[in-house]
């Protein structure tokens, strides 16, 4: 109770989402040169945004005083033609987080249950609690989703299942055959939200086929993001794909101007820049190899990752936080993941070659001091 204002108990129980530390904040707090700080904490694209997207945004600035297309007609049209979808299957979001929230607001109510994995994206329990529903966390197996455990936890109260593939922050991947088999076993009245924010970083063999599955599984919703490989994190744009009847229901509660004009323009142009995505994938693959080789040389264990990040293990939580703060003091921002029940791990995003080099050199210096 705040000044006689009643607040639901479940709101009090929500822990606000904490993102990666901004460069300006770290520079101000630690009195560091902002230009020399390396941020490897939020899985952002180290090469920025597509040149085509940048040009399109600059050209669109003259229309900034106008409201955006609330229906996102041209962006949905572009997504549909790119991925061979019907436009009625697509809903746009203010980042893919917006899609996750729209799903819960549409299909969950107080007393319902949603299932997600231990070590899965922190937004899942947040959006579930925000509508007064109950989250069922299934213990992970080798840091990955235990799909058999998911099936065992389905009951009459289950309305939604969240699956991240690849998963953040562990980077684990569920093989397509196993995932498709799982979908065939889930009751048709239970929504499965498949979060594919990092799909663009996967090899051709591992890339998702879920868009085509949505024709068979009417309870499947796929969420995608332009924040990662496309580099549009600051513009906030994502989308969801599912059966048209499901999407129509979600659109009833979607805010009318939830994706701004510049974000729509940038996303349309990004989908045309295939070379940019190829380059982003190449830099990520090379950077992942660089960092893994560094971990091996330094004797750090890590979780094999299919994303644009990798989590590495320290002795315990106090050592992990010591490394985190020492990296910060040296101008390298990474991510503690104790809130994912991985207190003895840190997660580092893959950066440019020189950024990865500085991270590994700083890691080496800290490890040498620790062992003295």
Describe this structure in words.
With 372 residues, the chain is α/β, with parallel strands linked by helices. The chain is built from 14 helices and twelve strands. The strands form three sheets. Strands 2-8-7-6-5-3-4 form a seven-stranded mixed β-sheet, with helices on both faces. It has a three-stranded antiparallel β-sheet with strand order 9-12-11, covered by helices on one side. It has a two-stranded parallel ribbon with strand order 1-10. The mean pLDDT is 94.
Helix content range of the residues, please? 25-40%
Poorly predicted segments: none
Which structural category fits the helices and strands?
alpha/beta
Major beta sheet, specifics? Answer: 7 strands, mixed
What is the radius of gyration?
21 Å
Strand content: 5-15%
Rounded mean pLDDT score = 94
Number of strands: 12
With strands numbered from the N-terminus, the spatial order across the biggest sheet is 2-8-7-6-5-3-4
- Helix-strand sequence: HHEHHEHEHEHEHEHEEHHHEHEEEH
Q: Could you give the distance between the termini?
A: 53 Å
**Mass-distribution shape:** globular
Total number of helical segments?
Answer: 14
